[in-house]
C-alpha cells in the first residue's frame, strides 16, 4: 500500500470526525442517568417522609413507570456508548446497595425522619450522577 | 528500517471500511442505520463492506427483533479494535514522517 503523508493526515482527520460524531450520539446516557437520579431521590423522599401503604402503592409504580420509560428510551438509541455495560452495571449495583440500606435502616429506625431520608435520597442519586458525568466526558472526542 | 506503511491493515485501508471501523471504535455497539448515515453510503454498499469486515473477524453483526422489525447493529471485535489501533498508529507515523524504529524520514 502506498500511502503518503497527506493521505495519512486526511485519513486521521476522517477518523477523528467519525469518532466525534459517534461519541456525541452516545451522550444520551448522561440524560438517562440524570433522570434516574431524580426519580430515585423522589422515590426515597416519598417513601421515607410519608411512610404509609398508600405512599408505597403510588410511589413504587410511578418509579417503575419512569424506569420503563428510561429503558424504552435506552433501547431506541442508535449508539451504545463505549463501556456502557460496565458503567450501567456498576451504577445499578451501587444504587441498589444505597437504596436498600436507606430503606431497610430508615423504615425500622427513622420513619419520617428528614435527617435520615434526605441524605439517603441524595446518596442514592450519587451513583447515577457519577455515571452521567463519566458519560458526558466520554462523549467528547479523545483523538 | 521498515516504513510504517507496511503496518497498515489491508482490510481497514479502504476508505469506506476505514470510516465504518472508526465510527464503531468510538462505541460498544452502533445501529446499522446510524453507520450508514454517518459514512454516507447506501444500505447495499455498507452491507458489502460490513461482510468483508465480518469475514476478517473485525466486526460482529447483531440482529434483534423489535416488534415486527429486525434491528441490525454492529460492533467491533477485540481483533477489530486491535487492528484499527495498529492501523491508526501506522497512519500517525506516516503523517509524522517516522520510520518503524522511531527514526525520522529524511
TrEMBL record, chain A:
The keyword Membrane applies. Keywords: Membrane, Transmembrane, Transmembrane helix. The chain crosses the membrane at residues 28-50, 56-75, 87-110, 116-136. It comes from the Bacteria. This is Uncharacterized protein. It comes from Nocardiopsis algeriensis.
From TrEMBL, chain B:
Keywords: DNA-binding. It comes from the Bacteria. Residues 16-94 form the Winged helix DNA-binding domain. The keyword Coiled coil does not apply. Pfam families: HTH_34 (PF13601). GO terms for molecular function: DNA binding. PANTHER family: BSL7504 PROTEIN. This is DNA-binding MarR family transcriptional regulator. It comes from Nocardiopsis algeriensis.
Amino acid at each position: 500500500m502506498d500511502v503518503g503523508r497527506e493521505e495519512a493526515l486526511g485519513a486521521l482527520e476522517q477518523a477523528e470526525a467519525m469518532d466525534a460524531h459517534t461519541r456525541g450520539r452516545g451522550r444520551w446516557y448522561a440524560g438517562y442517568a440524570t433522570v434516574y437520579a431524580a426519580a430515585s431521590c423522589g422515590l426515597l423522599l416519598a417513601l421515607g417522609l410519608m411512610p404509609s401503604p398508600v405512599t408505597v402503592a403510588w410511589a413504587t409504580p410511578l418509579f417503575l413507570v419512569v424506569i420503563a420509560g428510561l429503558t424504552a428510551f435506552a433501547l431506541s438509541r442508535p449508539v451504545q456508548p463505549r463501556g456502557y455495560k460496565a458503567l450501567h452495571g456498576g451504577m445499578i449495583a451501587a444504587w441498589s446497595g444505597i437504596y436498600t440500606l436507606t430503606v431497610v435502616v430508615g423504615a425500622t429506625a427513622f420513619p419520617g425522619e428528614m435527617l435520615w431520608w434526605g441524605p439517603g435520597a441524595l446518596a442514592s442519586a450519587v451513583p447515577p450522577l457519577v455515571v452521567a458525568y463519566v458519560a458526558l466526558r466520554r462523549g467528547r472526542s479523545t483523538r | 528500517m521498515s516504513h510504517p506503511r507496511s503496518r497498515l491493515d489491508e482490510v481497514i485501508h479502504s476508505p469506506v471500511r476505514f470510516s465504518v471501523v472508526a465510527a464503531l471504535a468510538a462505541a460498544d455497539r452502533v445501529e446499522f442505520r446510524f453507520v450508514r448515515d454517518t459514512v454516507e453510503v447506501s444500505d447495499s454498499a455498507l452491507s458489502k463492506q460490513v461482510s468483508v469486515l465480518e469475514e476478517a473477524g473485525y466486526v460482529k453483526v447483531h440482529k434483534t427483533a423489535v416488534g415486527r422489525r429486525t434491528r441490525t447493529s454492529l460492533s467491533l471485535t477485540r481483533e477489530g479494535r486491535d487492528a484499527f489501533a495498529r492501523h491508526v498508529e501506522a497512519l500517525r507515523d506516516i503523517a509524522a514522517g517516522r520510520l518503524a524504529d522511531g527514526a525520522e524520514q529524511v
